[in-house]
Amino acid sequence: MGTAGRRDNRASRRCEEKKGRAGEQETARACGKQVRTPYVIPRLWPGETFVCIASGPSLTQTQVDYCRGKARVIVVNRNWEKAPWADILYGADSSWWEEAKNAPGFKGLKVSVTEVEFDDVRVLDHKGDPGLSFDPTLLHTGSHSGYQAINLAVLLGAKRILLLGYDMKHGPNGEKHWHEDHPGNNPPPAQLADWIKNYETMLPDLEKAGVAVVNCTRDTALDCFPKARLEEVL
């Protein structure tokens, strides 16, 4: 085997070794792919209260409207339609950004963890490690976007995080979201149970960071955080 062939084999082995234990962008670099430099999340709002809004079927427009002007707001995926005034729009999947046509009515900061075709979407790296990332270029995934939104809020400086739409269960008529199903990933009950377990892994890191999380979702199976009515805590 020639020198070039040995180099190629070594590069291939490095690429394989990275898979499964590194972030997407780190893996891509090891495999010789071109990727943009990960965005560095600034601590824009240290010490402030954040509301993370996910798409559970119990979420109402009234709840969303109540948050306006009272806290920093991170909306996940289609929740920007209920809060086009939110501070952050987070969408993990490039397919969602394509489907949403880059959410043209949203004027706040747009963030993802996958390469997208839109230049105004800031792309972070990500890993499937438990707990939270304190690296401002990287999120821990918890296997879904609502978990990542909490990690994002921590990196932005949150002292307290309120959750809306974190049902972690289907609605009374089998609804998976407040909107119609996504074209692709719509979680079955077993997947929701796995997501709930993932949230428990962030509790030590939240305590370490001095961040309180309160679940204000109207109907929720996520029990690892204290619960309260939104109007009682905001």
Describe the protein in words:
The chain is an alpha/beta fold. It has two domains: 1-35; 36-233, no CATH class. The protein has eight helices and nine strands. The protein has helices at residues 3-18, 24-30, 61-67, 94-99, 145-155, 189-200, 203-209, 230-233, and strands at residues 49-53, 72-76, 88-90, 109-112, 121-123, 125-127, 138-140, 160-164, 212-215. β1, α3 (61-67) and β2 (72-76) form a beta-alpha-beta unit. α1 packs antiparallel against α2 (24-30). The model is unreliable at 1-12 (pLDDT under 50).
DSSP helical segment count? 8
Strand order of the largest sheet: 5-4-3-2-1-8-9
Structural class: alpha/beta
Distance between the termini: 68 Å
Average the pLDDT over all residues and give the rounded result: 85
Order of helices and strands: HHEHEEHEEEEHEHHEH
Largest sheet: 7 strands, parallel
Percent in helix: 25-40%
Inertia-based shape: globular
Percent in strands: 5-15%
Q: How many E strands?
A: 9
Summed up, the domain count is 2
The poorly predicted ranges are 1-12
CA radius of gyration is 19 Å
How would you concisely characterize the structure shown here?
This protein has 234 residues and is of the alpha/beta class. The protein is built from eight helices and nine strands.
